[in-house]
Write a structure and sequence with these properties.
By secondary structure, the chain is mainly beta. The chain folds into two domains: 1-281, Jelly Rolls (Sandwich), CATH 2.60.120; 286-368, Endonuclease I-creI (Roll). It contains three helices and 20 strands. Strands 1, 3, 5, 13, 15, 16, 17, 18, 19 and 20 form a ten-stranded mixed beta sheet that branches. The chain has a six-stranded mixed beta sheet with strand order 2-4-14-10-12-11, with no helix packed on it. Strand 16 (286-288) and strand 17 (292-297) form a beta hairpin. It is globular. The two termini are 33 Å apart.
Amino acid sequence: MILSDRTALPLLLSLLYEDQHTMTHRVAPLFFPIIACAFTPSIQAQGTTHTVVPTQYYRTFSRFHPVLERVKPGDLIVTKTLDSGGQDERDVTRSEPFNPLTGPFFVEGAEPGDALVVRFKTLRMNRDWGWSAFRLGLFSITPDDVEHVYSNEYKADLVRKGRSTLVPWDIDRAKQTVKLREPKSGKLAMEFAAKPMLGCIGVAPAGDFAPTSGPSGAYGGNLDYNRIGQGATVILPVYQPGGLLFVGDGHALQGDGEPTGSGIETSMDVELVVEVRKKAAPSGPRVELLDEIISIGSQPEFASALDNGLKMATSDMVAWLTGEYGLEPWAAHLTIGYQGKYDVVTVAGSVALRIPKSVLPPIKPTESTGAAAPPPR
């Protein structure tokens, strides 16, 4: 994503946001439509393939937005996302910032209380540049360091007209690397392996609540979790008929916690398969990788202490292990205690808890619809 101008003097009156890069407050309501274009899918699905790019994007997770496409469980969705500033793969600005969302997708058969399962088959950078903030957010460093930190101002209009706090990165899609174009370091090449991810994935929350694409919550939202990339499966609770899935905010690379308030922001080609697990809604977002299961304690940044996100992730993992895996409560507690790994997902918000699949028993069968289940581990 890009957070917005978040400042921190975090231990003081925080919630003030620094004019750090390009964002709006994670809590300010936003909406804006934009235009886009189409492209060709690269893989086949078990169900129907839906190749669709919206003529409108939205910046709220809302049940009131017109459905972009109706799909069935097991269908493949082939689409695109803009960067968080609203630019597409041809550098055309199709939205005001920030975090324009592709969607919503209505999944037939998904009802409140179900789990929506989103499998990312392809997540591919589709242009040769991105951009990021110029320095760490003040929310990531101590007040003593804030007093002496270098200026956030770099060059006016370098990345976007009216902005002076952003720096450009070159993306080599053949090598799958990113390299800072400027400024130049005398010590480092500032070239790193790319790790494409999506910052935003979520569903329309319960009732009429329509959060912006800035914060996150139990519905998903602007998670900014750098393990949500190609091959990841994201599991979300369903609150509205059809689930109403949204995706967006591609990053070519992002460190744990998003400490600068941005990733290396860029546009993406996305191919995903949706499934439904009946009456299996988790308490919040979950992620499955080839070798791990992950619970995310998802909450808006600065709204609550970081350890609250840890507690949320831990409680959900206990429910996951005792429910789907059938562990005794004491076995779930001790497995977490001696096999769990915690990730700071966002510096002042969410925490994730990872458990290796290698230490777990076979999962209990559940009622689901969609593509065939993966082969046993």
